[in-house]
Amino acid sequence: FHIRRIGQMRFKLVASQKFPLRDIRVDSFDDIDTLPLIDMTMYRDLKNLAPWNNLISERETRPVLVASNTSAMQRPVSSGAGITIFPDYAPMFDDSLITLDVPTPSMAVDLWLIAHEDSLREPSVRQLYDGIAEMFVHSPWF
Fold it and tell me: Which of 123, 89, 127 is nearest to 108 (CA)?
């Protein structure tokens, strides 16, 4: 396999404009502990999201809505049901989302591009592989 690190996806606290933030004081990451949170099962396997995962696992009586994938999480977040973490570029693609302007622990996931050596011998596949890598390497989002 040919493996290339192509960037890092940074995660931030995100809520919908419909979420009642003006009625709640959120000055730090720890302040969201008492608020409704929306989690995604895939996040639990990502060790670099430990601050978020620790917060979710320490919740005892307060509910956490758990979604199985990004689409299932997008709906409740957009409707204002709670706060979650999303890649920091997510509000650029959904006008209903805002990034919470509070200090948060560093949470980022490395992005890797992987292809089998045999498939990279095909010129069109190699061109696509290199093109995807260049797109990510030069993107301000990663």
Answer: 89
